[in-house]
Amino acid sequence: MNPSHKRFLRYATVGGSTFAFDLVLLWIMTEFLSIPYLVSTALAFMVAVSINYFVSRKYVFKGTSRRIHHGYVYFILIAVGGALAVTGAVALLVTTLAMHYLVARVLVACVVGIGNYLFNLHFNFKVVGHHP
C-alpha cells in the first residue's frame, strides 16, 4: 500500500474513533446533563479534537517538524474556528431541515474530516511528502 494511503487510513481510524467519542460526549451532555445541543456540540468537538491532536501527532503525522506546544496552540486556534463552523452547520441543518442534532453532526463531520486531514497534512504538521 502506498505510504500516503496508509497515512490517510491511520488518520481515518484515529478520526473515526475520536468522532465516535465526540458523538457519545455530545449525546451525554445534551440528553443527561441538559446542556443545549449547540453548546454541547462545541464542547464535545473541542474535547474530541484535542484528543485527536495528540493521537494523530504520534501515530498519523510522525516526523512533524513543529514542536508539540506550538503545534497544539496552532491546532486549538484553528479548532475554535472549526467548532464555530461545525456548530453553525449543525444549527442550520437542525433549524432549516428539522434534522436530529446527532444526524446533523454526522453529516457535518463527513465534510469537516476531509478538510481537517488536508489542513493538518499541509499546514499544521507539515509532513506532506514525508513518510516516516
Sum this structure up briefly.
This protein has helices spanning 3-32, 37-59, 68-97, 101-124. The protein is mainly α and 132 residues long.
3D structure, described in words:
This protein has 132 residues and is mostly helical. It has one domain (3-124). Helices cover 81% and strands 0% of the residues. It is built from 4 helices and no strands. The protein is elongated and about 45 Å long. The two termini are 14 Å apart. The model has no long low-confidence stretch (mean pLDDT 85).
Topology:
Layout: H1 3-32, H2 37-59, H3 68-97, H4 101-124
Which strand-content bin applies to the residues? Answer: under 5%
- Ends distance: 14 Å
Strands, count = 0
State mean pLDDT (0 to 100 scale): 85
Give the low-pLDDT segments.
Answer: none
Share of helix among residues?
over 70%
Q: What is the count of DSSP helices, taking H or I runs of 4+ residues? A: 4
Count of folded domains: 1
The gyration radius over C-alpha positions equals 15 Å
Main sheet properties: none
Shape, per Cα inertia axes: elongated
Q: Give the SSE string.
A: HHHH
Give the helix/strand class. Answer: mainly alpha
